[in-house]
Amino acid sequence: MNQPDLTAQSVVKRFGDHVAVDSISFEVARGSFFSILGPSGCGKTTLLRMIAGFLEPDGGEIAIGGRTMRGVAPNRRPVNMVFQQLALFPMMSVGENVEFGLARRGVARTERRNKAGAMLERVGLAGAAAKRVDELSGGQRQRVAIARSLVLEPTLLLLDEPLGALDLKLREHMKIELKQLQAEFGTTFVYITHDQSEALVLSDHVGVMNHGRFEQIGTPQDLYYRPRTPFVAGFVGDSNRLTGRATDVAGDRVRVDTGDGWTVEARREGAVADGDAVEVFVRPEAATLSRAGESGSAPHEGTVESLLFDGAKSAVLLRERRSRREVRVALPQTGEFADLRTGEPIAFRFDAARAVCFRVRSDRDG
Predict the structure, then answer these.
(1) Which has the closest alpha carbon to 199: 211, 185, 184, 209?
(2) Distance from C-alpha of 246 to C-alpha of 279, rounded to nearest angstrom
(3) Residue 297 has what pLDDT?
(4) What is the mean predicted confidence (pLDDT) over 185-207?
(5) Which site in 169, 228, 255, 364 is 20 to 30 Å from 2, CA atoms measured?
C-alpha cells in the first residue's frame, strides 16, 4: 500500500479559549485531489496554514510523505501554496516569476529557464515567458501561479480558495483546467473552499468541516447521495429541509408527521425511533411532478408559487396544500412542464429512498 502524502493525527489548534481545529485526523492519498469544504470560520484556513508550517499545532501530528513536520520551517517543507491573490511579481516577466523559486534554490540560470519554459508549455502558456504579468488574463495568471509552484516539484500543492477572485464564467472554466492539470502532473493537491461546486467537481475526496471538525470525509458522490449528518445534507447541494416527528419506523424507512397536516416518508440515517424529533432533507431532483387531478397523480398537492428558469438547473417553487410549506422541485429537462404558470395546482411525490431522515440531537446527546 502506498504511503499517504499527507497524514494528520488528532491535530488541535487554539487561539485563546477558541478551538479553531478540534482533534482532526485524516489522510490524503498520493496523487489525489483532496478538498476541505466548509463555511467561513470553520477552521479550514487554519488547518491549511498548519500543513504549510505557518502555524504550529497545539496538539497532534502532521506528516508529509511519511515524515513528521513538527519543528520543520515552512521553507523546509515539501509543499508549495497558491493563494487567492496569487502573489505574482508585477515587475518580473512571466518566465522570471516561474523561475523565482528555482533561483532561490541556486539552480543555474540556463537550467531554470529551461525548466520554466517546459512548465509554461505544460500549463498551456508556451511562448509567454517574456510577457508581463499585467498582459495576461485572470485565468492565465492563475496558471502562472500554479506553474511557479509545480516547477519546484512539491509533494503537496496547497490551494487557498484560488478561484475566489475570478468572475463566474472564468471560475467555471478554471475548475476544469485545475482538474486536468492535477491529473496530468499527478501532484497531490489539497484545496480549501467554501464553494461546494468547486469541491464536488474537482475532488477525489472531500472533507466537510464545521466548527473545527470534519463532519464527513468521502467522495463527492458519498457526500451528495449519502450524507451522514444534517450539516452535510444541508450544506452540500440544494435540499428541501422539513422538520417533524417520526411516527412509524420500519427498517430503514421512516414516516414523518410535519405537525401541520403533512406526512412524508424518508430513508433513516442513524438511530431514529418512533416519537423522535427529526429533520428530513430532500433534493429538488428527488421529487417528481404530475398534473393535479390526473389519473394516478402524485400523493402530495400544492400550488405553483414561482418558476425559476436556469436551463438544465430550472426548478419550480411550490406551496404544499396542507402545511403551506415551500418546496423546491427540479423541472425535468424534457420540457414537459415548460407551460406551468404561477398559481396553477400541481401534484408531486418524493422518492423516499432519496430523502434522508436524521434524529434531531438534544442537549442530552452532548
Answers:
(1) 209
(2) 9
(3) 61
(4) 92
(5) 228
Q: Pairing relation of β-strands 33-37 and 59-64?
A: unpaired
Please give the model's pTM, rounded to 2 decimal places. Answer: 0.88
A 10 A CB-CB count for 244 gives 24
Residue with cell 491535530: 11
- Report the pLDDT averaged over residues 146-157: 87
Q: Which CATH code, of 3.10.105.10, 3.40.50.300, 3.60.21.10, 2.40.50.140, is assigned to 238-365?
A: 2.40.50.140
Give one word for 324, left, alpha or beta, with left for phi > 0 and alpha for psi -120 to 50.
left
Phi, psi angle pair for 149, to nearest 5°: -80, -45
CATH fold of 6-231 reads Rossmann fold (3.40.50)
- What one-character-per-residue DSSP string does 80-119 give? EEEETT----TTSBHHHHHHHHHHHTT--HHHHHHHHHHH
Q: Give residue 30's identity as a one-letter amino acid code.
A: R
The amino acid at residue 102 is L
Arithmetic mean of pLDDT, 127-137: 86
Do the first three CATH levels of 6-231 and 238-365 match, i.e. the same topology?
no
Neighbours of 294 (CB within 10 A): 9
Reading the block at residue 73, the C-alpha cell is 520551517
DSSP 8-state code for residue 152: T
- Structural domain spans, the chain: 6-231, 238-365
DSSP bridge pairs for 37? 193, 208
CA 340 to chain centre: 33
Instruction: Indicate the burial class of 220 (C-beta count within 10 angstroms; 0-12, 13-18, 19 or more).
Output: buried
The dihedral built from the CA positions of residue 117, 120, 125 and 131, taken in this order, carries a sign that is: negative
